[in-house]
Amino acid sequence: MKKLLLLVIFSLPVVAFAQEQSIGLRIGEPLSITYKTFIEEKISIEAMIGRGSANSSAYYRKVFDNNKPAPGAFYLNHSAGGGVSLNGRVAYHEDITAEFDITEGTLLAFGGAGLQLRSIGLEYAYEEAPDANVVRYESRNNIDFGPEVFGGAEYYFEEMPISVFAELGLMLEIADRPGHVKLQGGIGARYIF
Fold first, then answer.
1. Which residues, listed in sequence order, are joined to residue 154 by a DSSP beta bridge?
2. How far apart are CA 138 and CA 179, in angstroms?
3. In angstroms, rounded to a whole number, what is the distance separating the alpha carbons of residues 38 and 93?
4. What's the pTM value of the predicted model, to 2 decimals?
5. d(CA 118, CA 59)
6. How far apart are the C-alpha atoms of 24 and 30, rounded to whole Å?
7. Chain-centre distance for alpha carbon 129
8. How many Å apart are CA 38 and CA 92, to the nearest integer?
9. Which residue in 73, 80, 115, 162 could disulfide with 54, CB within 3.0 to 4.6 Å?
């Protein structure tokens, strides 16, 4: 509890010196509402909450095979839904407007790192043995957690409080399936206030 209190106290000056704040929508993987604020001229922090898509069928088949509901359980299929994704990120920004001869607005390149937590509901259909002929069902919640790295560009319009961005990144799972890498990306827009 003391550590949490100290973290909150030391974070207050960072929040107080925020230069620019924006909120918007990110379309892609994950689909998210995004809140971003600059804590220094070139450093931003971002929080995202949204909906992450399911992993591949082979991914969930392997999860089932590694944690069978019964010793001889035989996988038939699965359904996935209700995915939630939470991201916390820090990024470094560099003005590249001049490199592209842009005369109106500002173009920033950025790169950063963060942490991501994803959760998705699964329902497995299986038989207790390959020839049992009785289909059983089991519901599970699959949780993935790990660091992410990303890079992209954001364009700030000169006459409007709006920016648009595009990015690409990777997430490395350290919880659930350590070592699994997920390619992610998205485009979006933010309102600056």
1. 108, 165
2. 26
3. 10
4. 0.82
5. 14
6. 14
7. 38
8. 10
9. 80
